[in-house]
Amino acid sequence: MKCRATTAGLIAIILIALPVYAFSYSAPMVIIENGSTSYNMTAFGFAANNQYMADNGFMLGSALDTRVQTLGGVESPHMVTDNQTLFAIEVPANSQTNLYYVTGESSLSAMGIIPGGNGYITIADSANQEISDNFTIELDLYLGNLQNNILVKSGAMSLERGTDNVTFSINGGESVSSSGLSPNGEFTVRIDGLIR
Q1: pTM for the model
Q2: Which of 37, 108, 119, 172 is 20 to 30 A from 65, comparing alpha carbons?
Q3: Using CA atoms, how far apart are residues 156 and 124, in angstroms rounded to an integer?
Q4: pLDDT tens per residue across span 139-184
């Protein structure tokens, strides 16, 4: 009887003392540039059943504990959706970059938005997102060497990137342009507006 009590007590101590661990996951990736072109920042993506991984404890439901990083732990900007993971890295000419998609890291406070090449993001119409007569729009973004629309609200306004400028236009109203921008780079675009 004493042996059973000791065994039961030992099992109870082990169960109480062991922390609860979530599963972690790691997947290797290789980016190869076998030409002579360097890319300052390029978006890549891969299909991943991230919803399954969150549902089964491999990562948080928010995916804020995920990373795309080198073996040495250098992190790249990334974005996780239910069915894919996107990330952006610099790619030197004639290079091979080894990366890992990992889960179980400390939680980030936020995740970037990476639409990919010629990608776009749409947001359903919402009264909370309507611009009033006094407004501010601030975007922190990276633009590659393509000219494109950054922000378009059909029939209302647009923010577009040209070869060396960014132009904000209000339909039926005025436009404001910046100039002398490098063809690639990170930008903070802030628009303070007052509609009369």
Answers
A1: 0.58
A2: 119
A3: 15
A4: 766 665 555 677 777 777 777 777 777 777 777 777 777 776 655 5
Are 142 and 131 contacting, i.e. CB atoms less than 8 angstroms apart?
no
C-alpha span between 167 and 150 (Å, rounded): 10
Longest Cα separation, the chain? 89
Rg from Cα positions in the chain: 24
CA distance 50 to 85: 8
CATH domain 20-102 topology:
Immunoglobulin-like (2.60.40)
Q: Where are the domains of the chain?
A: 20-102, 127-194
- Reference 155, options 130, 118, 183; nearest CA is 130
Q: What are phi and psi of 51, to 5 degrees?
A: -65, -45
